[in-house]
Amino acid sequence: MPLEPFKSSAPLTLGVELELQLVSLSNLDLIDASPDMLELLARRKFPGNVVPEITESMIEVSTDIHTDHGGLLAQLRQIRDALVAAGDRLNVGVCGGGTHPFQQWSERKIFSKPRFKEVSLLYGYLAKQFTIFGQHIHVGCACGDDALYLLHSLSRYIPHFIALAASSPFVQRKDTLFNSARLNSVFAFPLSGRAPFTTSWTDFESGYFARMEHTGIVKSMKDFYWDIRPKPEFGTIELRVCDTPLTVERAAALAGYLQALCRWLLERSEPPPKEDDYLVYNYNRFQACRFGLDGTVVHPKTYESVSLRDDIQNTLRLLANRMVPSDAQPLSHLGQVVQMGSDASYLRRQYQERGSSEGMVDAAIGNFRERVEE
């Protein structure tokens, strides 16, 4: 069916989706608890939305539409509290982290939903290996052209979000040496990576998407696993590269950072995005996944190599000089991440201090439960 028209939405509004782990408090492995969790949560008013994900050991929560970081954070905390209370009744822990450090993909169970069954039949074992956990951030756009302008302008900052959100260093009890191993699983899908270059919604809709639909490969935007994709039915762009953080405070800060970046980019004071900006895209993406904040990226315009940590700090300073009051808290939070290290670094420390993968999971559960004052 044709791509639906891009629905105009209030510019720079925010919405967040979090994919979360469901963990047995007996052995700290993943547990197929989403049917019970969803049934229990349906009995009371939930402060956002909660839906199943592809396997029964995960759920996805989403916020309402918000105009600023403060309102978003308040609702994420309400969602967190509701999930923790439900988990306590079921003896199930809820936590963030982009990967569970020792779960076995072959033990996962596909949630009984037609689309998930279809994906499982198409992708085979990759569907169960997709038991990984990410944060998606939606930003409202006035029109499709603005959405595509932002989508491509943000390509230079994708490494920032990967490194700041990184929380998936371990897979099957092994340190992968990656800060975000999760994104390696996403890259296995044929329609992943980056969107084709165009800043015209008309060209995207009647050109690229129409041709792809004609091939029979895609039916809707859901079939694309791009790092950033437009969502015309919402009137947003959706950033998809972030691992799920260990706390809702970090999740809100990442959303606030994206909002501040988009506000600045829409001023169009920077050179417009071009196709050649993507020459360095995969290299920069790899550096952020592998080395996190210690990676080195190449500027897509000047080809200058720069420390990712320095690049983030410089961008935070740039935005601080232009910020509105609601930007202060998220920019300050992420400034501390640059100094102190990401969730991936924290999990590695927990592994060293506690001596086991189970200890890491226990720490992640504790982090999700606790309110972090900023």
SSE topology string: EHEEHEHHEHHEEHEHEEEHHEEHHHH
DSSP strand content: 15-25%
Mean pLDDT across all amino acids: 95
Given the structure, what is the number of helices?
14
Measured between the Cα atoms of the first and last residue, the distance is 47 Å
Molecular structure report:
The radius of gyration is 20 Å and the shape is globular. The model has no long low-confidence stretch (mean pLDDT 95). The longest helix has 22 residues. The protein is built from 14 helices and 13 strands. Helix 11 runs antiparallel to helix 12 and helix 13 packs across helix 14. By secondary structure, it is of the alpha+beta class. Strands 1, 2, 3, 4, 5, 10 and 11 form a 7-stranded antiparallel sheet that branches. Strands 6-7 form a two-stranded antiparallel sheet. Strands 8-9 form a two-stranded parallel sheet. A hairpin with a 4-residue loop joins strand 10 and strand 11.
How does the SSE layout of this entry go?
Layout: E1 14-24, H1 34-41, E2 49-52, E3 58-62, H2 69-90, E4 92-95, H3 114-123, H4 125-129, E5 134-140, H5 144-153, H6 158-165, E6 170-171, E7 174-175, H7 182-186, E8 192-193, H8 201-215, E9 225-226, E10 228-231, E11 236-243, H9 248-265, H10 281-291, E12 296-298, E13 305-307, H11 308-320, H12 328-340, H13 343-354, H14 357-369
Parallel strand pairs: 8-9
Antiparallel strand pairs: 1-3, 1-4, 1-5, 2-3, 5-11, 6-7, 10-11, 12-13
Helix pairs in contact: 1-2, 2-9, 6-10, 9-12, 11-12, 13-14
Keywords, please?
374 residues; alpha+beta; two-stranded antiparallel ribbon; globular
